[in-house]
Amino acid sequence: MHNNNRNNRANANKKLKDEENKKQKQANNKSNKKAEKGNKKDKRKKGKSSSSSSDSSNSEDSLSEGELAKVLEEVEEKKKLVAILRTKAWRMKRKLVTLKESQAFIEKFEGALGKGKGRRFYAYKVMMTKKWIKFKRDFENFKTSCIPWEMKIKEIESHFGSSVASYFIFLRWLYGINLILFSLTFGLVVIPEVLMGLQYGSIPRKTVPRKEQPTAMDFSVLWEFGGYIKYSALFYGYYNNERMIGVFKYRLPLSYFMVGVGSFGYSLMVVIRTMTRNARESGVDGDDGDFNFSWKMFTSWDYLIGNPETADNKFASITTSFKESIVDEEENQKDENVHLRRFLIVLANFLIFCCLAGSGYLIFYVVKKSQKYSALETLTWYQKNEIDIVMALLGMFVPPLFETIATLENYHPRIALKWQLWRMFALFLGNLYTFLLALIDQVNAQLAEEESIKNKTLAMMNSYNSTNSTSERIPAIDPADFPRGPCWETGVGLEFTKLTVSDILVTYGSILVGDFLRALFVRFINYCWCWDLEYGFPSYTEFDISGNVLGLIFNQGMIWMGTFYSPGLIGINILRLLTSMYFQCWAVMCCNVPQSRVFKASGSNNFYMSLLLLILFLSLLPVVYTVMTFTPSFDCGPFSGKAKMFEVIMETIQYDFPAFIGELFGYASNPGLILPGILLMVLAIYYLNATSKTYEAANLELKKKMQMLRDEQKNRRNNKNTVNPMLQDLEDLLPNNANVSKLELVKDEKVIQERNKKGTNQVVVEKQPTVTNGVTKTNGKHGKEMALVPPPPRMVVTKPPNPRQASHLLGQPRSGTPGSGPRRPPPGQPRH
Amino acid sequence: MQCSVFTVTILESPLKYFGIWNKYNLQVFTREQLKKHGRLDIILFFVLKDCTVFTRKEILRLYHRYRALAPQIVPRHFNDSADIKLPLELISEVPELKENPFHQKILQVFSEDEQENMTFNDFLNMFSVLSDLTPHHLKAYYAFKIYDFNSDNFICQSDLEVMLSKLTGDELSGEEVQLVCTKVMEEGDLDGDGKLSLADFEYMITRAPDFMSTFHIRI
């Protein structure tokens, strides 16, 4: 019907181009065909009972070549429609109707065109993708369930924020490291010694001295790691210096040394590798903050959640994450008095420096005093433990003081945490170093003592030798009665173990008293108190991230330092980490409240890691120093009898390796080779540093460019929007909304155009490829939408046209006078 | 409704339709299966399978879930379920929906009639949209409809406020809510009209890393 209209109009104008005529013919043909098809459909509907094969033969008879191709296209189109039907955002009813229609169509015509083999493959493919997706998800779930304590940490994170969770993640990571160190130490040193070495009581170093035997099983002695514990495989002194033990000829001294070196090497490697990985990860997804809040808003709820408890956790975690982002955002918007702020920062730093100096002096004083005590014979409990107590007290009271002072600075909580960590690190470092100095004093004293005892022993042995015959020398003296040196290595190990244990006790005690009892008090006394305890003065405690992280880091430093002299220490540490994981998780959930300003932890835990690396390096120093400089005790430990501990390596090379390796080793340790090696490394570091800086700069540049591009895009969109109303105003100025430039506007032509507007739309409809006809027929509403696809404009357009403009432009030449040249704007001419 | 008409036409000569099945070759049915589910529902499965992303098994499983909501109303067999409607309160007993803070709006979006009822087809459609095989744009479209609380085809300030209060349970203060809403608008509103259109929303949500995994219910 529309076609007829258009024909009339075209005839009236008689200025259509040849192409259009052609198109029109095609359209006419097609409409005819449509009618035919309709007829066919009717026929089919009537004769449905006839078999499909006869149908197909019928249609084949009646269809010509071109028509067949068209039908094929249509069938394909329908099939495609069916295939993507599930991805359409339609109502179920509409889907069903469409499906029914297109299926009927396919059913009718497919017979003519062969079977739909693709469907089977498609169904198979869909099934496989489904299975694959399911498998992937299950695998992910499995992986998550394999990570220990993941659910616990997630729960804490949802209530307390990522900063508190970062502590627990760090704890878990440390636990993993310690587990490996533990298996190294116990598997290669302790267990071989226990299984294959000499039994307890066989030689002096493996026996409790006669003097200590009456009290060796007393609890007070054992609690101090004296008595039987001191002379057990948990400490350095127990190990024998026999080069090979057992039937396997296990080289225990070598293994002891290598495990000591290896655990440091492994720790260094792991810390550095984790740091680089974290840095890489945070570099990759560092800032996609374009839609930070939007994503939190629209994608944070997980539709899978069907468990009330999980849902509660999710609500809490969403709220927490919003709060974190809000804190960050507020920080970005903050501006205030710079001078006052600077003054306060300087003041705070000065106060903190005073505190640090004071506590350093206190420790120094206490160490001095305790050295005086050591001259005394009887010591009270307080005198014995004075250093521990002072250090524990300092650790308890100075950090809160720092925190109070740090409020002066008014930093963002994340930055404040970093500062707090550094300051406490300095405090603990002072403690640690005074402790180490005291320890070295003690070692020196013991070395001197040992020298005299060694002489005495040798003299005694000599006298014994001279009096007795050489044959029955050893069994004559019981191992317990044998005179022995103080064994400074065991002494060092004992100090570290005691310190670790007292640290554990202080930590747990402070959690019990400071958190749990306080929470109980606040919770239950609140019923009968004159002010609100929960929101008033004592309140519940917040989780102290900085203190806990530093406690963990320093504890780890102790372990690294002490393990060489006390292999059992690492086992104690494993127990400590394990219990503290459960205990602290419980304590956090039970008696702490989230911080008032929940803040987001930095993307990686690299700050903790760098502190850990520092402490690892610092704890490496004293161990290497003692190994390299001090002579090992003459009568205890795996290296007894050697001038230096590392001689065990030389010994192995000398006896167990072929000669040329020893030579090689000799060359390699030549300063002439080492110095160039160091030089080369320095050069490499310099080069790598330079390149990484270049990359960083390039990265920054790229980021800037991306930001610029984004802004530009946004601006352009905005501009379009601001321009559009302007254009509309312009259009409004023109009568009848015509979008033809003012200069060439002829009134009568415009009237014609107005009249023909409807016609143009239809022309466009028919210009669509014939394939779409099936679709437009099945869902009539969509016919119009299809028409909006703009064909290439024929005129030079200086403004990006929106679809409506395009259709107008298209309509113009047809309705107007295409032959008359001057009416068109010359190319490139501005149109307004 | 259309569905039931379809089944009726098939009822007239069911044998003829075996031809269709063989042609599509989607599934070969054993006699036991036919006995168990009846012939009609198998035909229905064809229809539903093409309208959703589910397989026959999954449709059946969903049907059992649907039936479990009201065992006395919904018949045991799948065949004549097209006329059954369940009120939305019943539908929201599905655990995933029950915990979802937006469940009312979700059900509204997916239910086709105004009397707050939901047919099995709608139910199926809902789970199809929320399944993980559904393409991005479809999910984005429905998410937009869900989050458009006042149904004005734009997500505006008031929608965001409603959403935030549902998500955080009124834990945020008024200023914080305002801050969040302005930030969301700032980020998402590309054409500067003070509200998020579907295009804005889609642009934003297709870039979200975990939209596909969170806007998803397993059946």
What would you say this structure looks like, in words?
- The radius of gyration of chain A is 43 Å and the shape is globular.
- Chain A is built from 28 helices and two strands.
- A two-stranded parallel ribbon of chain A has the order 1-2.
- In chain A, helix 4 crosses helix 26, helix 11 (252-284) runs antiparallel to helix 21 and helix 18 (488-525) packs parallel to helix 20.
- Chain A starts with a helix and ends in a 17-residue tail after the last helix.
- Helix content of chain A is 71%, strand content 0%.
- By secondary structure, chain A is mainly α.
- Chain B has 219 residues and is mainly α.
- Chain B contains 13 helices and two strands.
- A two-stranded antiparallel sheet of chain B has the order 1-2.
- In chain B, helix 4 (56-69) packs across helix 8 (120-129), helix 9 packs across helix 12 (198-206) and helix 10 packs across helix 11 (174-188).
- Chain B is elongated.
- The model of chain B is unreliable at 1-30 (pLDDT under 50).
- At the A-B interface, helix 5, helix 6, helix 12, helix 13 and helix 24 of A face helix 1, helix 2, helix 3, helix 6 and helix 8 of B.
- Percent helix of chain A, as a range, is over 70%
Fraction of residues in helix of chain B? 55-70%
The secondary-structure element order of chain A is HHHHHHHHHHHHHHHHHHEHHEHHHHHHHH
Low-confidence stretches of chain B: 1-30
By secondary-structure content and strand pairing, the structural class of chain B works out as: mainly alpha
Structural class of chain A: mainly alpha
- Biggest interface, residues from each chain: A-B, 66 and 77 residues
Quote the beta fraction of chain B: under 5%
**Overall average pLDDT of chain B:** 74
Distance between the termini of chain A: 39 Å
Total number of strands of chain A:
2
The H/E string of chain B reads: HHHHEHHHEHHHHHH
Global morphology of chain A? globular
Regarding quaternary structure, what we see is: heterodimer
**In which order are the strands of the major sheet of chain A placed?**
1-2
Question: What is the CA-CA span between the terminal residues of chain B?
Answer: 25 Å
Biggest pleated-sheet summary of chain B:
2 strands, antiparallel
Major sheet: arrangement of strands of chain B: 1-2
User: Care to count the β-strands of chain B?
Assistant: 2
Number of helices of chain A: 28
